[in-house]
Design a protein that fits this description.
Elements (H helix, E strand, L loop, with lengths): L3 H7 L9 H23 L5 H8 L3 H4 L1 H24 L1 H21 L3 H15 L4 H9 L6 H29 L4 H4 L2 H14 L15 H20 L9 H23 L13 H30 L5 H28 L2 H18 L9 H27 L7 H41 L5 H13 L6 H39 L19
Helix pairs in contact: 2-8, 2-9, 2-11, 5-6, 5-7, 5-12, 5-18, 6-7, 6-11, 8-9, 8-18, 9-15, 9-17, 12-13, 12-18, 14-15, 14-16, 14-17, 14-18, 14-20, 15-17, 16-17, 16-20, 18-20, 19-20
């Protein structure tokens, strides 16, 4: 007995017994809530004209249906880490889901654009807490060997929700009405409340954190993030800094950003713990997540826009074409999950970003005739690459952090993905506008009216429009439309190339992270 005592004393303590039924049901409820919150960012994208007609809004006002959701959401995402530590994950999630449902119904019942924007902003704010809390639970409630499975599930949710959002929204609007874009959140929301309320009691809050709450830090963070998000969302529409409001908000963000960082690093009880950035792998992982956001939201933005603007596809046709990306993600997820258990996560990140770059670079040769089959390979490569990079980035980012940093860090990771998506969309929007004008100028300069081919085309067009009031004017307008379509196509090719270069650059940044052990060999998260 005495001989066995030292061995027993030196043995590694056994892992606590886990009730898998309760854990999986609680986690499933949180995942459904996370899917709703991410899906709602894009579900209205394909139905804005119907909403505009329904509430009598102008073209400028209707864009705020998207912007009003995103701006408050970026404040709640990092704040949710503090609230989870204060009240506990379960309470925060239940309040977030209940508020999200109520604001969804209020938005759907709105009869004016002002009321709709107000309720949509509240919907984004309260719903934002459902996104990062799931990440924290995956890295604290699951034992090390099962965290990759949880990461794969979250990766599918994060990538598929914005991909299927416009398609689902288009079909709901066609079959029912645009109001069901918001009412649809009620049935799954009730399921989430039941599952999370009954099974997701994963941790307890610490009420002592309420003492000395950093109101100045919250005000600086909210001002910085909301100003930055507004500049990114609205800048390309308003010609950036030539617009006074964009200029002043950019200045405000430039001032409050450093002030927020200083406050967070010097205050004893900060709203957001930024010391996680001293962890090298976390820093590299956040940069990777930022790039994943740009590649994910950028690709999801460019493809439907090209198909509707150049090919004039309906919402259903766009959804059919985009389905390849979702299928590629589904097929890649289990494969990537197995790989990250066996190989260095940096290799998987590098390979994922290079696959994404390859797919986007292939699309730079896009023509106005491209459709389902031409984009199938592009989407397969992008979908597989984004999924591989995201799962590996989650492993690199979170696995080496001490447990007291995980909740705050999950908020920062999700914030970096959203801001990366906003940066990507801002750059792509600006690129499309600028390059379309540039290519149009080049095309018109290179085609002379005295050119024999042009004269023959004009004559043929005039003959076609002979029955109109002004055949010559109609012919010139038709040719101008053809040139503009070609210029737009060339601009989309430039935008795809820009995404490709960004993904290739990110692939090489992964090499700056420290060697990561395969996930199967990772120590428990509470190891220091």
């Amino acid at each position: 007995m005495t001989a066995a005592a030292p061995a027993a004393a030196g043995a590694r303590p056994s892992e606590p017994k886990i009730n898998w039924t309760i854990l999986l049901l609680g986690f499933a409820g949180m995942v459904i809530g996370q899917f709703m919150a991410i899906l709602d960012i894009q579900i209205v994208a394909s139905s804005l004209p119907q909403i505009q007609a329904g509430v009598g809004a102008s073209a400028d006002e209707i864009s705020w249906i998207q912007t009003a959701y995103l701006i408050p959401e970026v404040v709640m995402i990092p704040l949710s880490g503090y609230l989870s530590r204060l009240w506990g994950t379960q309470k925060v999630f239940l309040v977030s889901c209940a508020g999200f449902m109520l604001m969804s119904v209020a938005t759907g019942l709105s009869s004016s654009i002002d009321a709709m924007i107000f309720f949509r902003a509240l919907q984004g704010f309260v719903g934002g807490a459902m996104i990062p809390t799931v990440f924290a639970v995956a890295f604290t409630a699951f034992p090390p060997k099962h965290r990759i499975t949880a990461s794969v599930i979250m990766g599918l949710i994060v990538t598929l929700a914005p991909t299927v959002g416009p398609t689902l929204g288009g079909h709901l609007t066609e079959q029912l009405s645009w109001r069901w874009l918001f009412f649809i959140n009620v049935p799954p929301g009730l399921l989430v409340l039941f599952l999370v309320g009954r099974y997701a009691n994963f941790d307890k809050g610490d009420p002592s954190l309420a003492r000395g709450f950093d109101w100045w830090g919250l005000a600086l963070m909210a001002t910085f993030l909301m100003s930055l998000q507004f500049v990114l969302e609205e800048g390309s529409k308003n010609d950036w800094f030539s617009d006074d409001s964009i200029l002043w908000l950019a200045v405000l963000a430039a001032v409050t950003g450093p002030a927020f960082i200083w406050r967070s690093l010097t205050y004893s009880n900060p709203v957001v713990e930024l010391r996680a950035f001293t962890n090298r792998n976390f820093m590299v992982g956040v940069i990777m997540t930022f790039t994943v956001g740009a590649a994910l939201f950028g690709g999801t933005f460019l493809l439907p826009l090209f198909l509707s603007r150049v090919r004039e596809y309906s919402a259903a046709e766009v959804g059919t074409t985009m389905v390849v990306s979702g299928l590629a993600m589904f097929a890649t997820a289990p494969f990537a999950g197995r790989l990250v258990r066996k190989v260095d996560a940096r290799i998987l990140m590098f390979g994922g970003f290079m696959l994404c770059a390859w797919g986007m670079w292939d699309a730079h040769a896009v023509t106005s005739e491209w459709g389902f089959w031409q984009f199938a390979g592009v989407q397969a490569l992008r979908g597989a690459g984004v999924m591989m990079a995201m799962i590996a980035a989650q492993q690199v980012t979170m696995s080496t952090l001490p447990p007291h940093m995980v909740k705050n860090a999950s908020g920062l990771v999700n914030l970096s993905r959203n801001v990366g998506g906003a940066f990507g969309l801002a750059l792509l929007n600006t690129s499309l506008t600028t390059n379309t004008a540039s290519h149009m100028s080049e095309l018109t300069q290179n085609i002379s009216v005295t050119n024999g081919g042009m004269q023959a085309m004009l004559a043929g067009m005039q003959e076609r429009f002979a029955g109109s009031i002004d055949p010559a004017g109609a012919a010139m307008k038709a040719i101008s439309g053809m040139l503009y379509k070609q210029a737009t196509t060339l601009a989309f090719g430039d935008a795809f190339a820009m995404l490709a270069v960004g993904c290739a650059f990110a692939a090489f940044v992964t090499l700056f992270s420290r060697p990561a052990r395969p996930a199967a060999d990772a120590p428990p998260l509470d190891a220091h």
